[in-house]
Amino acid sequence: MNILKAVLEHEVFPALGCTEPIAVAYAAGLAGDQLDADFEEMTIAVDPGVYKNGLAVHVPNTDGERGNLIAGVLGALIRRPDLKMEILKAVDPAQIPRARSLIESGKARILCHRPGKGMHIDVRVRRGSETARAVIRHRHTNLVLLEKNGRPVFQGGDETDRQVLSDYQTTLSRLGIVDLIRAAENIDDADRHYLQEGVEMNLKMAEAGKDLKKVGHYLSDLIQKGFFQDDILSTSKIMTSSAADARMAGLNHPVMASGGSGNQGIVAILVPYHVGQYFDIPEDRIIESIALSHLLNGYVKCFTGSLSPICGCAIAAGVGAAGAIVYQQSGAHMDRITLAINNIVSDLGGMLCDGAKGGCALKVASATDSAIRSAYMALNDYGITAVEGFVGKTAEQTIYNLSRISEIGMAKADDVMLDIMTEKTTPAP
Question: Do 31 and 132 contact (CB within 8 A), yes or no?
Answer without folding.
Answer: yes
